[in-house]
Amino acid sequence: MEELKPYNIEFAGLAQGTHRFTYRIGEEFFGCFEHSEINFGTISLDLTMEKESDMLVIDYVFKGHVELDCDICLKPYRQPVEHDHRMYVKFGNDFTEQSEDVIEIPSEARHFDIAHYVYEYIHLNLPIKRVHAGDGQEGSECDKEMLDKVASHSFDLKTGNTVESLAASSQEALKKLRFDKNN
Questions:
Q1: Calpha distance 65→76 (Å, rounded)
Q2: Pairwise CA distance, residues 27 & 39, whole Å
Q3: How confident is the model over 127-176, as pLDDT tens digits?
Q4: Residue 164 in 3-state DSSP?
Q5: 125 close to 83: Cβ distance less than 8 angstroms
Q6: Could you say which of 38, 71, 74, 113 is the most buried, measured as most Cβ atoms within 10 Å of its Cβ?
Q7: Rounded Cα–Cα distance for residues 9 and 110 (Å)
Q8: CA distances (Å), origin 79, targets 15, 59, 65, 129, 162
Q9: Burial of 66 (0-12, 13-18, 19+ CB in 10 A)
Q10: CB atoms < 10 A from the CB of 119, how many?
Q11: CA gyration radius for the chain?
């Protein structure tokens, strides 16, 4: 894909030492991945690559925001993204992932594609619980109309009823079932 081409770093012609790359990650990047949880976003990635004779040391620094769907009301909200990660790319015989931070690539390789790793690092650093928290209080900016709809279909564990008495209709359905011993 043309949008991911800049993430394929050609390191073979670079001198040993420090090299810096800057990326603007946005909608076109996330659109290249079929199951992305991110609707929209703008993240700057400052990448520093230290080229040594036997390895590459890559430091990723992410800063920006993404748009996610709230787990409570499903309304999109803005989630800040700010983290960094260090990866070691060793030159060896074959391509293997030795750990989440250590990758081995063939010594004859001339480039290293970071697109998949960028995608993973962003997603792995998103919160597990995704909710609006505009004034510091969880769910404070949720869509009130959607919350009312959810509440009307919620099951109350204490009473065993729903607002629309789903339990009563379930009981009626069970009464209509016939259990014949002969069948």
A1: 12
A2: 8
A3: 998 887 765 555 567 877 776 777 676 666 555 555 455 455 666 666 77
A4: coil
A5: yes
A6: 38
A7: 9
A8: 38, 22, 5, 11, 33
A9: buried
A10: 19
A11: 25
Give the global pTM.
0.76
What is the arithmetic mean of pLDDT over 26-51? Answer: 91
What DSSP designation does 136 have?
A: S
Q: Is the dihedral of CA 26, 59, 129, 36 positive or negative?
A: positive
Could you give the C-alpha distances from 64 to 81, 125, 137, 147, 152, in angstroms and in order? 5, 12, 21, 29, 37
Eight-state DSSP code of residue 13: T
| Residue 168 token pair | 């009563």
84-103 pLDDT tens trace: 999 999 999 999 999 989 99
What is the rounded distance in angstroms from the CA atom of residue 122 to the CA atom of residue 81? 8
Which range has the worst mean pLDDT, 17-26, 38-47, 120-129, 131-140?
A: 131-140
Distances in Å between the Cα of 165 and the Cα atoms of 137, 153, 156, 172 are 31, 9, 10, 11
pLDDT at 144: 77
